[in-house]
């Protein structure tokens, strides 16, 4: 079955929350299938309604064919995407992966500009703008990651910094493509560190991103874009973050490698903590 399509909605319509698991460079293709099967069973047992809360995983490239086979074979409603793509479509680009290949593997989504790509691989905003275009050329929904490092947070310029990334990456993307985008705010200082930005920090940035999109593209476009938070999210912290009005989901790293923990994040409405 085709994964739940990414919903679009105007300012009056609800944005369906997206709970996304970024496996990073973890789980080979056998381990990946085992985890996905367990996640699907756990959510099935809990009678999870995928129309209310969408679920997607971002496995390594080498897992994607196995994930596709399982999702189609078992008629799962879990979506999937890749962690990166090339800005090019084909040719002499050793080691790169075309969006065309990802589309053929049934990917709905692709991460663009994860902080680990920006820092470890030196990807700059010009390249990320080209990657966004490549994703749309192949019908993939990009999940564009933005966010500041600790020095910027301490200097208090995190909002300008993050909006600067967003503007540079979106560059001259047409409004109908911007409307389909998912933006993930991932403060670098909160990734893999156990430090979670508070719900108010997540809301502050999500609201700033939406206000910026509104000023440049109008209410209808800004109202359709889903803004996620990512950085050390666990089941215990997810509900409060997801309860904030401009936060439309979470992008989970480490905790997405545990099917039970990740399922509890997906089921956040049932695990509300005080
Ligand atoms: O980078 C992240 C998701 O893309 C966050 O990772 P952690 O949840 O492990 O901090």
TrEMBL record:
Binding site for substrate: 22-24, 192, 232, 253-254
Protein name according to UniProt: Triosephosphate isomerase
A GO CC annotation given for this chain: cytosol
Chief subcellular location: cytoplasm
Keyword Oxidoreductase included in the entry's annotation: no
Catalytic activity: D-glyceraldehyde 3-phosphate = dihydroxyacetone phosphate
Gene Ontology MF term list: triose-phosphate isomerase activity
